[in-house]
Write a structure and sequence with these properties.
This protein is an alpha+beta fold and 120 residues long. It has one domain: Arc Repressor Mutant, subunit A (Orthogonal Bundle), CATH 1.10.10.10. 47% of the residues lie in helices and 12% in strands. The chain is globular, with a radius of gyration of 16 Å.
Amino acid sequence: MDTIGTRVAFCPRFHKAIEQIGSRWTGVIIRALANDVRRFGDLKHSIPGLSDRMLADRLKELQVDGIVERTVIPETPVRVEYRLTDKGCSLADVMAAITIWAETWVELDEPDAEVELCIE
């Protein structure tokens, strides 16, 4: 079972990957974009407690990291859509594994707050 233990403890690529996807709200944003192209307002409303500023900052970081693509559609009014790139879509199995792990091991502070299980 210990496949990680046979390698060195510090792996620079792993460290950088965790920094990229482990920032506050980043995983939730990636998960929200996993199955759909979304507009800013749609993302904002689908993630309770996320401020406009934090969403904008995280989306910019994810664009710089090549995980999210921003598309401006020139119509009136201008429409902006966000979608995962191929790099971002490749995180689907990682996000699914984290979701399964969370369902098993993570206790919620307010158990009644969870409306439905996260696993579909």
